[in-house]
Amino acid sequence: MSPWISCTLDKDKPDMPFNIEDYKDIEPLPITTGLPDELCEIMYTDNYKQIMGIARALVQKKEYSARALQLTSEVIGMAPAFYTIWNYRYDIVKWQMETHSNVPELLNNELSWLDEITLNNPKNYQIWSYRQSILKIHPSPSFKLELPILQMMIDDDTKNYHVWSYRKWCLLLFQDFSNELSYTDTLIQRDVYNNSAWAHRMFVLKSTAPSGNDINDEINYVKEKIELVPQNISVWTYLRGLYEYFRKDVYDEEIIKFAETFTNNVFDLKTLENLPPVESSYAIEFLSFVYSKNEATQYKSITGYKALSEKYDPVRVGLWDHKIKRIQQGNRAI
Amino acid sequence: MSLNNNRKKHIKFIERHLALLPGSHEAQDVNKMAIVFYAIESLCALEIDTKEIYTKNLGWIHKHYSKISLENDEPIAGFVGSLTMDIAGVNTISLPNTLFALLTLLILDDRAFLTDSIEMGRISSFVSACQLEENGSFMSALNFDSIEASSVDSNDLRFCYIAVTILYLCGSRTINDFSRYIDTEKLVEFISSQKCNVGGFGQYGEPHAGYTSCALSALKLLDSLDRLSEEFIEKSITWLVQRQVSNIGCSKFENENNASYDEFDHGGFQGRENKFADTCYVFWCLNSLQILTPDWQTLCNTSLVRDFLLNRTQNLVTGGFSKNDEDDPDLYHTCLGIASLKLIDESFNGVLCIPKNISSSLES
């Protein structure tokens, strides 16, 4: 029995639990198995064969009913990747909408059911797109109602790509970006390496036309986080993103000086022997890129890339050699 | 250490997935066609004569081929993932299952089917029906009772890649061939819309190695890589090479603070910034790189990649590969671990995800 089937799916029988007896009149459509040339043959349990047999028969008959809806829940519990069953369930819900007196309540119940499935199958592909489909037909969707499941899933895995994507989809749907900077700040405080939180923050900025002052605040914000942990690719990428997108890729003296505080004068060295310790290879990479943009400072850029090869990020020697070659051919490093 | 030291164990590990499976595998029932492809492709990459062994199973694979009759038109067709999903009169075929089946049939050299232009046209029409008019991307399946793209599916770069690859296997080669079935211009625009500022592809600006591989492979098959700017290609190469995890130089500072950093991941690839290295992301990153530049083997360190796969994620006791050194090995990571090693040996077609000796038959 599934505990989540407690919503009022059937006005005559509220809280009707799943009961196999309700399907007695259905002639099951059995699964074909046990063939001599079969691969990956599964020793199906009797329960699986029974539920699937009934589900196959109901889909074929296109039965739209409360019991059909409950059966889809059973099937999804056993085989969440069975995409056709999600489709069938969606059509049953749309059919219920035609006669239900309170459509928002009906769809909210559906979303609650989906919460349970989501918590049990965090990596399932269907859950988020199904959720989107329900919100699209919901007469009064609410971002507030989406927040609990989003929060639970992020608490479970703070870098879950599907959850972050879904959150951004919601922001665009509800056009509500008001809490997002403080939300990402909470996650960044928890883990400054959370690249998804940084990418989300950039998405919010790009979607909200921030003022010049807002961007100054952002630059100060990320600088603080760089000072906290200089060897972190996410913060340097974010800093570069701010300049690229909101500052026309023009890097002022102040930001160059800031980055240089992490590079221990490496760019002024005449020789690469006895390279000093530095705190961040990403600071060197950032400055090497900035210096590559101007012919007068390109020699510094080459020094930076050579130092990365030599000591600070030697695994990527092939990439740094490639950057140097580009500069020598008259290109920017990128 | 080489793959050959452990070859017999890998073969046994893989073959087990094709044999009788306990009831605990029921949740994977609907993914059977994926299992069949991962297993037979991996065995083929390990130079097993898969054609000799599995030709006898062709009949069973063909049972998964399902036609949807249309009133005034030719039927459309594709494959289901399992006979459990084969329900007369219900649209249960999907793009991924169709790709897995076609690639398996290609490995098993089922020429009679693959050169049947009527069937290939029906499959191509199915691909056509899955494309969304609004933005050119693809759903992976149809609504269960009508010939329209599914109302509840996602439409991301995976299905764009799969759609294009199916059309390629069905005979499309030039952009004009593809355009007989799909709106290639809209598709390329959709793929471009998933470009990220920092390089790579992903949703809403966060690049992801898996999506990047899908986007680049699709553009490669569409002969449309020239639609990417030189600057974006350079950024993407940089982003991809940066995904190789290192424990020397400044990287070692991350050991103390970064909860998603493990110094023993050295040489492996991660799928996104500040994530652990993982066998499958080795494949997605290397495949993306080899599409972008012929110099990929000098841009990243492939000898460290080999060490990561052979010494860390390969399971020397049971055979197979896992995603890291903690989980049990699984078929998916085994497939992509072997594929990565063969890609480095230049004997693997990463775009189609099959050994080169199989893909070469498509070129002749």
Strand and helix map with partners:
The complex is a heterodimer of chains A (334) and B (364).
Chain A: H1 46-61, H2 66-78, H3 83-99, H4 103-120, H5 126-137, H6 143-156, H7 161-174, H8 180-190, H9 195-207, H10 212-228, H11 233-246, H12 253-260, H13 281-292, H14 298-312, H15 317-328
Helix pairs in contact in A: 1-2, 2-3, 4-5, 6-7, 8-9, 9-11, 10-11, 13-14, 14-15
Chain B: H1 7-16, H2 32-45, H3 50-54, H4 58-62, E1 65-68, E2 76-79, H5 95-107, H6 111-114, H7 117-130, H8 157-169, H9 175-179, H10 184-193, E3 202-203, E4 206-207, H11 209-221, H12 230-241, H13 254-257, H14 279-292, H15 296-299, H16 302-313, H17 331-344, E5 348-349, E6 354-355, H18 356-363
Antiparallel strand pairs in B: 1-2, 3-4, 5-6
Helix pairs in contact in B: 2-5, 2-17, 5-8, 7-8, 8-11, 11-14, 12-14, 14-17
CATH topology of the largest domain in chain B: Glycosyltransferase
Percentage of β-strand residues of chain B:
under 5%
The structure class of chain B reads mainly alpha
> Gyration radius of chain A, to the nearest Å?
28 Å
Highest CATH level, the class of the largest domain in chain A = Mainly Alpha
Q: What percentage of the residues of chain A does DSSP assign to strands (E)?
A: under 5%
Listing every helix as H and every strand as E from the N terminus to the C terminus, the arrangement of chain A reads HHHHHHHHHHHHHHH
Keywords (chain B): Metal-binding, Prenyltransferase, Repeat, Transferase, Zinc
Family (chain B): Belongs to the protein prenyltransferase subunit beta family.
InterPro entries (chain B): PGGT1B-like, Prenyltrans, Terpenoid_cyclase/PrenylTrfase
Pfam families (chain B): Prenyltrans
